[in-house]
Amino acid sequence: MTQGPPSSRLRSEGGPESIPPASIGSLQRGFSLPPPPPQPKFWEQQIGRTLRLIENLGEVALLSGRTFRALFRRPFEISSTLQQLESLGVRSMGIVTVTSVFIGMVMTIQFAFGLRRFGGLEYIPRVVVLSFCRELAPTLTAVIVGGRIGSGMAAEVGAMSVTEQVDAIRALGADPAKKLVLPRMLAAIIVMPLLSTYALVLGVAGAVFICAFQFDIPPTFFINSSLESTRISDFVAGTAKTPFFGYIIAIVGCHFGLRTTGGTEGVGMSTTRTVVAVSIAILIADFFLTKLFIMFQGA
Questions:
Q1: Could you state, in order of their start, the residue ranges of all structural domains in the chain?
Q2: Within a 10 A sphere around the Cβ of 119, how many other Cβ atoms?
Q3: 214-227 pLDDT, tens per residue?
Q4: CB 24: neighbour CB atoms within 10 A?
Q5: Helical axes 78-88 vs 182-214, angle rounded to 10°
Q6: 2 or 195: which carries more pLDDT confidence?
Q7: Peptide bond preceding 75 in cis form (omega within 30 of 0)
């Protein structure tokens, strides 16, 4: 009686049919996935974030020093600065117009709702204009416009970084801080005070409109009452903060753009980080600048 191979005898005798051949088992063992790495602990995550923050602050400081040193070196980037002025200033007037007018209207309604309880509707012009001069016009304009300007800078410079155009600038013997960062920084520093003043005028115009048509406060009374309580120092204290905001917007946007890696995905991540970092940095800087200006005015 003939006998077949051992594997056929096992199957004919009712042996385990689920045993795979040796070749399939080796393939399965070759493609086995390693276990996932252990998740970092909470304190390790916080230490990592703190170290990344310190690293970014150091890189921003170094980039700022290189940019300010390039300010006095020839050739002067006049044409690039004018182009950035048009891109950052003129194209931002639409969003500044809409936001400032409606913020003026909303703040007027909110102040009227609170002051009406105490019979103080005549104080609306003073409160609205003073708050716009010192805080609302410069800070809200910087936050809203800064998101647009900073993300645009990060996207432009980041696209140049991932396509190796920044490396080409270095290979030609030029400084990326002078060619890319300096025009954007100068344009942002020049544009932000103008946009803040423009937002102040439109915000006050929106407040005058609401007061005249809803609360029966004539425009002449509104203007005279606001001028009695608002001084030129209030306008200067608000406008003087805007160049610092412009510097923050430009340096943060260019910083994240220059360190962009990873193609289009990296450009998107740099843009998102820029918007978040610019908004937080402006609010923190606004606190310290406000305390500084109040201290000088009190002295």
A1: 78-298
A2: 8
A3: 888 888 988 888 88
A4: 10
A5: 30
A6: 195
A7: yes
